[in-house]
Every structure is written in structure tokens, then in C-alpha cells.
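Researcher: I'm preparing a figure for a lab meeting and need a structural model of a single chain. I don't have an experimental structure, so a prediction will have to do for now. The sequence is pasted below. Please return the structure as C-alpha cells so I can convert it later.
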Amino acid sequence: MPSPIELLLSATRTAVRYAARSDASRCPETSILDDLMSRPFPPSAGAVEPATTSVVAGCFDAAVRAATTSRERMLAGALASASPHLRWIAPYQRGEGADDLATGYTTTMLSMPGPSPREGYQAPFANSHVLVAFTLQAPGIFYPLHRHKAPELYHVISGTAQWRRDGEPWRTRMPGEWLFHASDQGHATRTGKEPLLVMVAWIDHLDCPPPVLEVDGSE
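Model: Understood. Here is the structure written out cell by cell.
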């Protein structure tokens, strides 16, 4: 019988495959991700040490229940089953420019290359071609503008939030949507009354350093 982690990988592949074939989300980047997700995902050399955060304790169940379509429910349910076996961490600490991220934002890795892009990250799969993660952002949290060399795809699993890219106004994004950020394209997110549960994929430059927050004191 497949493990919860294997079922999460399968559900993620299914979500990506649908996006690569749907008129609403089909683009070169979802097709690239579909190809990368179809390749083997070898297990990591070391076992994942499961961990949780206060954001998971406070918001995760509500975010899973908020998934609406059958595809997002499938992915959210698989993540819920796998969550006790994953390592959730708070990647930002107080003093990095956005203190509410320290207690209002968390992430966990499904696959990543080695070595870890930041201390504390662990993933059940070691993949040198694609980095796949899930993030959870609590209500009322502002994730400031940041950028990285890695081109990035986001899939909104649940939660309605606002997103902004360099040179563009804030835009409300709904569950089921896919967003693409090109290499070095700044982007920011802010949540309202709902938690935001997202799948994230880096499809190139996987060894780039973690993003630095570009905080200027305003949103």
C-alpha cells in the first residue's frame, strides 16, 4: 500500500497534469512542470524528522476544509494525511523585516535537491530537477516583495488572497488558480480573513539562495 508521502506525490502529479492540459492554466511553465513531475522522485538519503509550527496548529485544518473543488480537495486531503510525516518550519525569523511571518507563515518540502537551500529544511524526495513545497499563510499576514533566481509556479489550494508582481497592481487570486513568477521577478502576497494554502514549485536554478525580503515599511 502506498505511504501517505507517496500518495501526496501522486496527488501533486495529478494536479499538475490537469493544469498542463486545462485551457485556464495551460502555459509553457505548467507544461515544463508536468514533464518534471513525471520523472522519478528518488527518496532522500536521510529520513525526514517530522516537525510542526504554530501556524499549522492554528490554521491548517481550516485551510484543508476550505478546499472547494474536487481537485483541490484531493490535494489538500493528501497533504493532511502526509503532514504528520513532513517537516514544517518557519523560514523567516524576527528581525528579517517582517516579524509577523515568524508566527504567520510556514512551509514544508516534498522534494528538493541537496544540499538544503536553508538550514532546517528536509524533504522525503531528493530531486535535482524540481523543488516542490507547500506553504501555509495565516489570515492577516503580509508577505513582502521578494525575488529569487528560480522561476516559480504557485497553485492556490485554498484561501482567497491578494498577490502582486513587479509593475502590477494587487490582484485577488482564487482557489484553483495557477500563478507564474519569472526568474528575479518580485512578488508579494497578503491574506485577509482566510488562511492561504499553496503548492509551490521551482523549475530551474534550484540551488539559488533563499529570497531576501524587500521591506520598505509599506504594502
